[in-house]
Amino acid sequence: MAMCPLCNSLKELEVSCPNCGTQLDDSGKVSDFLDPYGHYNDEETVKMGDGYPNTARDQICPHLMVCNDCGYDVVKFIQEE
Fold it and tell me: From CA 36, how far away is CA 1, in angstroms rounded?
């Protein structure tokens, strides 16, 4: 089974804010915001309800990246390994 390198602290994603140039913070998986108790479910169940139709099939993990200076946010899809 594949795992997300960001969720497991194996890698860090460095993305700059397109508005102000500040480093975006990884706020975690999008599914953690949709269901605060979702982390108790198995990963396949979580992916079925995360709002993205291909996360399970393509083995990708959607992460919310946020700029703490200007409030910009974007979802980045991380390839699981």
Answer: 23
- Percent of the chain with pLDDT strictly greater than 70: 86
Select from 35, 16, 32 the least CA-distant residue to 74: 16
pLDDT, one tens digit per residue, over 47-73 is 776 778 888 889 999 999 999 999 999
CB 47 within 8 A of CB 30: no
Taking the C-alpha atoms of residue 78 and residue 69, their distance in angstroms, rounded to an integer, is: 23
pTM exceeding the 0.90 threshold for the entire prediction: no
How many Å apart are CA 51 and CA 3, to the nearest integer?
19
Which residues are 61's β-sheet partners?
78
Q: Report the candidate in 79, 65, 62 with the shortest Cα–Cα distance to residue 14.
A: 65
